From TrEMBL:
The keyword Transmembrane does not apply. Pfam families: DHQ_synthase, DHQS_C. This is 2-deoxy-scyllo-inosose synthase. Its cofactor is NAD(+); Co(2+).
Length: 115
């Protein structure tokens, strides 16, 4: 979500109703940090990656499928590729739809229920 210009928080009247549209100054992708996350959190993030691959960047599907082992043990090289491709997919959408009201709506699929 940090790659999106749209950042929002939940309030007492609803989800994601208070927010801004500002481009981040810097985005850090630390694969070492991923080791601190539970399997559930990793799977949650990878679902988002798969969704974006299917909806935005189908060219990454075959390689992505090969990088998702059944034992859920991901090496740093695989995670770096997944992160790089995910950033490219989101950038492809947000570059032309800053406020995510057209093509950028694809980034919202699943979020209403998921959060």
């Amino acid at each position: 979500s940090v790659l999106s210009l749209k950042q929002a928080v939940n309030s007492s009247v609803g989800k994601n109703l208070v927010g801004t549209f500002y481009q981040p100054v810097e985005v850090l992708a630390d694969t070492e940090f991923l080791r601190t996350l539970s399997r559930r959190e990793i799977r949650s993030g990878l679902r988002e990656v798969v969704k974006n691959a299917l909806a935005i960047r189908p060219s990454m599907i075959d390689r992505l499928a090969g990088l998702l082992p059944l034992d859920e043990r991901y090496d740093d090289e695989a995670m770096r590729w997944i992160i790089d491709e995910s950033i490219a997919a989101k950038a492809q959408v947000t570059e032309n739809d800053v406020h995510e009201r057209g093509q950028g709506l694809v980034l919202e699929y699943g979020h209403t229920v998921g959060h």
